[in-house]
Amino acid sequence: MSAPIALSCGEPAGIGPEIAVKAWQALRADCPFFWVGDPTHLPPGTPFREISGPAEANAVCAAAFPVLPHRFAAPARPGEADPRNAGDVIRVIERCVELVRSGEASALCTAPIHKKALIDGAGFAYPGHTEFLAALGGVEHVVMMLVGAGLRVVPATIHIALEDVPRRLTPALLERVIMLTAAGLRENFAIAAPRIAVAGLNPHAGEGGAMGRQEIEWIAPLLERLRREGMDVLGPLPADTMFHTRARAGYDAAVCMYHDQALIPVKTLAFDSGVNVTLGLPFLRTSPDHGTAFDIAGKGIAEAGSLIAALELARDMARRRAGQS
Asked: Which PANTHER family match (predicted)?
């Protein structure tokens, strides 16, 4: 049996603890994982069992929620992040990465963090979770892939203002994103010859230069060069016609130019089950496609569908990498 998945606790004042338990209740032995965090932060009545190492999780998971304990500095009050816990949130992530890189865990699934609490409590120096994981993995470039409802999308630029996109979007960046996407499809999804659709930057992909010239001046020439080098890339395509059912059947992943261009289609099709996959890391990482949801934390109403999908996708990718079906 393969190694279990490590699930980091994330921000303990958010919905992470309760959806972790809901995910275990739904999956149990079908997708063995263990949760790294403080068991006192779990919902009252959770049938958990502390384990001393990941190897115990497979046997425990069918009957109890496996917890690799990490004691935090302060209690968790739903909806109110405590900066005193910031250092422990960070250390849990570091610990999980160590377990995956050592082979004791097959993949990492991360619950949402709250960046302001980490900055206030521990001087967190990274723009977000993904950049921190890249630093821990010793890599400079990673990309975010959103997966759901049979669609895979990758934004070339992410959390920047729309007015900054044309300046930040360069031929070198776009080529790197396309190459990382192709490698991720081969390694994690067992797609030997990936088909990648690339959106245009401007409406109607520039409409022959009438609505912008980036497509003519460098996006189309870049894609043509990649095609000559043997890659199966389509585009640049008008983004408004890339995501209907018939169009989606023609590619394995879509590379988009900015955040909303990529996330609107996947969140429309898979709002409660979308998964964030980080490509380019030296280990497997997935996460649910939502935040800490402080407004509903502790109320027992948080949906666990995205976390369940993230755990299942991590399991499936780990099996593919191990050569299992």
From this structure: 4-HYDROXYTHREONINE-4-PHOSPHATE DEHYDROGENASE, D-THREONATE 4-PHOSPHATE DEHYDROGENASE
